[in-house]
Amino acid sequence: MTDTQSSTGEPLSQLTFDNRLVKQLPADPLRDNYPRQVPNAIYSFVNPQRAPAPQLVAYAQDVAALLDLTPEDCASERFVQVFTGNELLPGMEPHATCYGGHQFGQWAGQLGDGRAINLGEVKNRRGEHWTLQLKGAGPTPYSRTADGNAVLRSSLREFLCSEAMHHLGVPTTRALSLTLTGDQVQRDMFYDGNPEWEPGAVVCRVAPSFTRFGHFEILTARGEVDLLRQMADFTLRNDFPELGPPGRDSYIALLKEVCVRTARMIAHWMRVGFVHGVMNTDNMSILGLTIDYGPYGWLEGYDPGWTPNTTDAQGRRYRFGHQPQMALWNLLQLANALYPLVEDAAPLEAALDEYRREYLRSFQRDSVAKLGLPEYRPETDDKLTEDLQRLLPLVETDMTIFYRCLADFDPLVDQAEDSRSDAQLIEPLLPAYYSPPTEEHQQRTADWLRQYRERLVQEWVRTGLDQRQRRERMNRVNPKYVLRNYMAQQAIDAAEQGDFSEVYRLLELLRNPYDEQPQNQRYFARRPEWARRRPGSSMLSCSS
Ligand code: AMP
Ligand code: MG
After folding, report:
1. What residues are labeled active site?
2. Pocket test residue of 111, 134, 218 for ligand 1, highest count of atoms within 8 A of CB
3. Which of 117, 360, 496, 544 has the most C-beta neighbours closer than 10 Å?
4. CA nearest ligand 1 atom 6, residue
5. Rounded distance, CA 205 to CA 427, Å?
6. Which residue lies with its CA nearest to atom 7 of ligand 1?
7. Measured between alpha carbons, how far is residue 471 from residues 294, 422, 478 in Å?
8. How many angstroms separate the CA atoms of 357 and 162, rounded?
9. How far apart are CA 70 and CA 6, in angstroms?
10. Predicted local distance difference test score (pLDDT) of residue 536
C-alpha cells in the first residue's frame, strides 16, 4: 500500500499530520474554553464548536492538490464535516494561538486567535508542511467578548480573494474550503444599532504557518523573554531553516528576511491595486504573506488616498498610498519585539533599511514593467513614472483597465514623427475613464503618452523589442481581471439565496487573471454606478 492510499479507504484518511508547533512549543495548561489572559504559553488547546448543518459552498482544487486531496475527497460528506469543525481526523490537535498587536497605531495587548482554530500541520507527499486553520468555527480563550463566528459575506470575500491573490502572483495564505454551518449569526454591519441575522460560515485557511508579528510582540510586552527566544528559534528552525541555527546573528537575519519579504508583498499590492484595509501588526505574517482578508478592497478609480474600510475612514491610516509606510511602521514594532534577543539597535535598524531598499527596488521594477520596459532607468523613468502617478488621480481612471489598455497604445516606433492628435493618442485609453476626459485632461494625457513613446523608441533601438512582445510583457504584470468589490458582492447576494454558481464562476475566472477570456469580457468593465453607494461594494466595516 502506498502512503496515498488510506488504510480504511475513507476519504481524507491519507492526510498525515506532523504538528510541530504543538510538539515544540509550550501550551496553556488550562483546557477549559473561556475568555482569559494566557501568559507563559504560545497556544491553548480548544475544540471547534458543533455546526448544526454543515454544507459545502466551494473548495479550491489547487489547494486541495497541495494537500494531496482528490476531487472525490472534497466532494465527500466527511470533507464538509471536517472542514466545518464537526469531525477531527486522526492526528489533528486543534488549538488557538496567543498574539498581541498594535491596532491603528496603539498597543492593544493580547488578541490571539479569537475565531481561528489550527487543526494541525499536514505533511504532504512532497514533505511540505501546511497548517490547516478553521476561521469561524467557534470561540476560543482569545475571543474576548466576541462570538468566534464568521458570516458568509466576509468568509466568501476571504475565500475568493486569497485564491485570486495567489493566482495574481501575490504571496498570500490560501483557502481550501468555504462551508456554511447551518447556524445564524448576528452582526451589526455598520455599527449603527441595526444588527441582522446572517448565515454562519467557516473558511479553512492553509499556509506554511500563521505566525504574525504579534506573536512576538505579546511575549516581549509581557517580559517573557525565554518564551520569546523559544518562539524565534522555532520560527527559524521551521520557517527559515536557510538562515542557520538559532542565535544572535540569525535573529537579525530573521528580521532582515521578514523586511525583504514584506517589501515584496507590499510592492505586489501596489502593482495590482490591492488595499488591505487593516494593516495592524496582528495582521502581518512573518512569512510575508497577505493574511486576514477583512474590509479589503481593490482600487477602481486610481486614488492613493482611498481606503475601503469605514472603520478607518477618519484617519485613513491604511489608505492605498500609505501601505508602504505602514508596513515599515509594523516592521519597526517587530524589531522592538526582537530587541531583547539582540540587545543592540544598530543591526536591527540596518535590517529595517533593507525594507526601504527592497521596496524601492521592487516598486521601481514594477512601475516600469507595468509600462512594458525591461529595466528602470532613473534618468528617464523617475520623471516618466512620477508624471503618471500625478496624472492618474486627476480624473477618475480605472487602474486595471488603464494599464491593460495602455498595452494597446501603439508607439509607432518605426515612424520618425508621431503626428497623431491628442484625441487620437488617448483613444485606446477611453474605456478606463468614468466620465469623458476634458480637453485639458486629454492634452495632459497625450503629453505623457508622447514622453512614454520617446522612452519606448529609445528602448526599441537598444533591445529590438517589438510591439507584440511589449504587449505580452505588460499583460503578464497588469491583470485583466481582479475581484472588484461589486463582483464579490454579487456572488454574496446570490450565495445568501443558496445559489453558489457565481462563486464558482469567479473562482474559475480569477485562476487566470492575466489571460484574455473572451467569454468573461463583462468582468473587464468599470464599476457600475449602482455599486458606488451599495454597502459591501463601496463601504466595508470590520464587522464580519
Ligand atoms: P481582525 O481585526 O479581524 O484581524 O481581528 C482582531 C482580533 O479580533 C483578532 O484577535 C481576532 O481573532 C478577533 N476577532 C475578530 N472577530 C471575532 C469574532 N467574531 N469572535 C472572536 N474573535 C474575533
Ligand atoms: Mg486579524
Report:
1. 282
2. 111
3. 117
4. 111
5. 44
6. 111
7. 34, 22, 10
8. 27
9. 12
10. 77
Q: Report pLDDT for 8.
A: 59
3-class secondary structure, 282: helix
For cell 497577505, what's the residue? 290
If you measure from the C-alpha of residue 284 to the centroid of ligand 2, how many angstroms do you get, rounded to a whole number? 8
In this structure, the residues whose C-beta lies within 6 A of any atom of ligand 1 are 111-115, 142-143, 146-149, 278, 282-283, 292, 294, 542
Contacts of 180 (CB under 8 A, 6+ apart): 53, 54, 55, 57, 84, 152, 199, 200, 201
Residue 276 contacts residue 318 (beta carbons within 8 Å):
yes
Inter-CA distances, 487 with 22, 48, 337, 373, 491, Å: 39, 31, 40, 31, 6
Ligand 2 centroid to 517 CA: how many Å? 34
| In contact, 535 and 484? CB cutoff 8 Å | no
Q: What average pLDDT does the structure give for the chain?
A: 96
Task: Give Cβ neighbours of residue 490 (< 8 Å, ≥ 6 apart).
Answer: 502
**% of the chain residues with pLDDT over 70:** 99
Q: Which of 111, 99, 89 is nearest to 43 (CA)?
A: 99
Give Cα 532 distance to the centre of its chain.
Answer: 23
Q: Is pLDDT of 2 > 90? A: no
C-alpha cell recorded at residue 369:
514593467
What is the number of residues in the chain?
Answer: 544
pLDDT digits (tens, 9 = 90+) for 107-147: 999 999 999 999 999 999 999 999 999 999 999 999 999 99
Cell of 477: 504584470
